[in-house]
Design goal:
This protein is of the alpha/beta class. It has 3 domains: 183 residues, FAD/NAD(P)-binding domain, CATH 3.50.50.60; 126 residues, 3-Layer(bba) Sandwich (FAD/NAD(P)-binding domain); 111 residues, FAD/NAD-linked reductase, C-terminal dimerisation domain (Enolase-like, domain 1, 2-Layer Sandwich). It is built from 12 helices and 25 strands. Strand 4 and strand 5 form a beta hairpin. The protein starts with a strand and ends with a helix.
Amino acid sequence: MAKERLLVIGGDAAGMSAASKVAREKPETEIVVFERSPHTSYSACGMPYYIAGMVEEVESLIARTPAQFHDKYNIDARVHHDVLEIDPTQGKLRVLNRESRTESWESYDQLLIATGAEPFCPEMANAHAQGIFGLSTLQSGIRVREFLDEHHPKQAVVVGGGYIGLEMAEALVRRGMRVSLIQMGEQVMETLDPDMGALVSEALREIGVTLYLKESLQGFEAKNGRVTAVITDQRTLPADCAILGMGTRPNSILAAEAGISLGVKGSIKVNARMQTDMAGIWAAGDCVESMNRVSGKPMHIALGTVANKQGVVAGTNIAGGYATFAGVLGTAVSKICKYEVARTGLLERELPKLGLEAVTATIRSRTRAGYYPGAGRITVKLLAEKGSGRLLGGQIVGLEGAAKRIDILATALYAGLRVQDIVDLDLSYAPPFSPVWDPVQTAARQLLSQV
């Protein structure tokens, strides 16, 4: 009797988590993973720190190589392989071996699509000039560092004020470069409310980043094939390096062409078990839509934590078990030099569409007891439903020790706690870690008076 064959498209967080789970639970399965880049199972989140030089060796960002997956799990992980087509009627994939430039058809019994997300790179003048980079795969991060090490650019422009843009701005500042950042919106970090985003803008200016808000990218100038300037709708900024951090979109074109249904922002529709609407085809990671536990609405979110969890759920079900994905809150943290930024749940601007009326409270406190050395500033903002007191979201900006407090709020949101419950939580206290009233509870107390 022939072995059941699982094919996986994409060899990073979701794909390799699922493949490893199937290998453990159902080792008789033949598992083949196709990855277009040279690497499997790497930390994309670590790329800005590698580019900054804070992480010396790129190997530190690789969890397991193809050889390790083969030796430990008997998984055939084929890098430099690009899947060109899914034929669901025949149960086959058309695959290009990028090294040999040959194509083959590969059959499957079960298929997992884990194609991730891709950076948004608009087509415009000189967009492909040397020195212009988007970050997606580990190889793209390696190319950035090689360029910086070889050419020693002096001035850089970062386009986009999201997580990648801000972390890359910090990385380039650490490399001693003059850094400008262009943001189309009125604030950086649009996953925060404007008042909290303004604090992040202040933090960027404090480390020397020049901000150009409410400006849109129009193109690039280049000389001898290399970027020399970034053009906005208001000015031309000299640059010998440019980083595109304009957000990502689900890499779902293969699924769409195969007739698989898409959802929010073109992400692949899946149920709680990570099944698509085609028999035998599963999807997980940055290419799929997720359910927001607070709003109850589908959303697209590209985070490694979510991708890993979804991969495990998909792998459990593919192996014949039963698991469901619990949904997301949009919890995320970031760091800009000494400043920490965190968020979870809903934003104020999202509430009217959901028919929710909310109250908010913003407090400023210290990360430790005020008299203890190293106590730093922290700002906490909470949102709750008016009347019921149900927590809807939270945001934190502050110095060392601030950001991980967001996990208190993420846990509260997951459990459906109300503001009074947060006030009542028996949190730890000692002067090196917190004031007597933790800033999260101080914000909850203030919010309680408005509910």
